[in-house]
Amino acid sequence: MSYDRNEMLSMFLANNKLKQASSLDEETLLKVNFRDSTDDLVVESLKSLIMSFCKKETQPMTLRQINLRIDSLSNYRKGS
């Protein structure tokens, strides 16, 4: 079965709980894509999770990818 990562992302970004957890406003969330980084931990973790799912990666690999993304964004924020 094939998955459209952009469609999956759009469905998650429409979720009210995700909107509350994200630091991005609703207008910015509508423009989120896989090409551009948002610097939002929730959104970028979600994107990593979707990418891993679509690549059919194992659970440990998926968690590793998400943790690496969170670490890189956390370090980026500390440097700001």
Strand content: under 5%
Content-based structural category: mainly alpha
Based on CA atoms alone, the radius of gyration comes out at: 13 Å
According to DSSP, the number of beta strands is 0
Counting copies of identical and different chains, the oligomeric state is: single chain
**Helix-strand sequence:** HHHHH
Low-pLDDT segments:
none
Structure annotation, total helices? 5
Mean pLDDT: 86
Helix percentage = 55-70%
User: How would the global form be characterised?
Assistant: globular
Q: In this structure, how is the largest beta sheet organized? A: none
Distance between the termini: 42 Å
Descriptors for this entry?
single chain, 80 residues, mainly alpha, 0% strand
Characterise this structure.
The mean pLDDT is 86. This protein has 5 helices and no strands. It has helices at 5-13, 16-21, 26-30, 41-54, 59-79. It is an all-alpha fold. Helix 1 (5-13) packs antiparallel against helix 4 (41-54) and helix 4 (41-54) runs antiparallel to helix 5 (59-79). The longest helix is centred in the last third of the chain and has 21 residues, at 59-79. 8% of the residues are buried.
Describe the structure in brief.
Helices cover 69% and strands 0% of the residues.
